[in-house]
């Protein structure tokens, strides 16, 4: 998405890949969506091929694994909800595809949530495996602090402070919720431009071609 800083989206993808992908899925984002936004086609193909995708059945009726393709969606970290809960103390890590679109001021909320872990204040009791975060509903979450300074590495050398990591992954998740946003914007500009030209053309033809016919008068003058 050119309108939401392609460099930041790419860095956010790198943060997601290093810090989030082990728990949270992006079921509705395909590797082809990266092409022309954060990666070249060759880079996106290489990213896809790092994932082994379950496919099939083959001619013998068996499922098999193959390297990913551009048309494949991001592979979820767990095969089903039960496996996800078993690995996370009963909590089910949410799919992040539309997490930004589903809340008002969601970018600010997501940034605060990712950077808002503190020691619990007096009187707050947490169960085993819970962490205090005032931005989470109830103040307790099973997700530990996901981001620290240098907990991820940027390919462009940007300093990986926790606040920078949170900002970039939030921008990436904003893009992930509507990867066709820029395409729709460009189409809207084209439609508005074409519509304006059409309206002006119709006005010109009506004003200078047909108005003369409308204003024309005929007189009948009988002979004699």
Automatic annotation (TrEMBL):
<feature type="transmembrane region" description="Helical">
    <location>
        <begin position="187"/>
        <end position="206"/>
    </location>
</feature>
<keyword id="KW-0349">Heme</keyword>
<feature type="domain" description="Cytochrome c">
    <location>
        <begin position="7"/>
        <end position="159"/>
    </location>
</feature>
<keyword id="KW-1133">Transmembrane helix</keyword>
<keyword id="KW-0812">Transmembrane</keyword>
<keyword id="KW-0496">Mitochondrion</keyword>
<keyword id="KW-0472">Membrane</keyword>
<dbReference type="Pfam" id="PF02167">
    <property type="entry name" value="Cytochrom_C1"/>
</dbReference>
<protein>
    <recommendedName>
        <fullName>Cytochrome c domain-containing protein</fullName>
    </recommendedName>
</protein>
<feature type="binding site" description="covalent">
    <location>
        <position position="20"/>
    </location>
    <ligand>
        <name>heme c</name>
    </ligand>
</feature>
<dbReference type="InterPro" id="IPR036909">
    <property type="entry name" value="Cyt_c-like_dom_sf"/>
</dbReference>
<keyword id="KW-0999">Mitochondrion inner membrane</keyword>
<dbReference type="GO" id="GO:0020037">
    <property type="term" value="F:heme binding"/>
</dbReference>
<dbReference type="GO" id="GO:0005743">
    <property type="term" value="C:mitochondrial inner membrane"/>
</dbReference>
<dbReference type="InterPro" id="IPR021157">
    <property type="entry name" value="Cyt_c1_TM_anchor_C"/>
</dbReference>
<dbReference type="GO" id="GO:0046872">
    <property type="term" value="F:metal ion binding"/>
</dbReference>
<keyword id="KW-0408">Iron</keyword>
<keyword id="KW-0679">Respiratory chain</keyword>
<feature type="binding site" description="covalent">
    <location>
        <position position="24"/>
    </location>
    <ligand>
        <name>heme c</name>
    </ligand>
</feature>
<keyword id="KW-0479">Metal-binding</keyword>
<dbReference type="InterPro" id="IPR009056">
    <property type="entry name" value="Cyt_c-like_dom"/>
</dbReference>
<comment type="similarity">
    <text>Belongs to the cytochrome c family.</text>
</comment>
<dbReference type="GO" id="GO:0006122">
    <property type="term" value="P:mitochondrial electron transport, ubiquinol to cytochrome c"/>
</dbReference>
<dbReference type="InterPro" id="IPR002326">
    <property type="entry name" value="Cyt_c1"/>
</dbReference>
<feature type="binding site" description="covalent">
    <location>
        <position position="23"/>
    </location>
    <ligand>
        <name>heme c</name>
    </ligand>
</feature>
<dbReference type="GO" id="GO:0009055">
    <property type="term" value="F:electron transfer activity"/>
</dbReference>
<feature type="binding site" description="covalent">
    <location>
        <position position="143"/>
    </location>
    <ligand>
        <name>heme c</name>
    </ligand>
</feature>
<keyword id="KW-0249">Electron transport</keyword>
<comment type="function">
    <text>Electron carrier protein. The oxidized form of the cytochrome c heme group can accept an electron from the heme group of the cytochrome c1 subunit of cytochrome reductase. Cytochrome c then transfers this electron to the cytochrome oxidase complex, the final protein carrier in the mitochondrial electron-transport chain.</text>
</comment>
<keyword id="KW-0813">Transport</keyword>
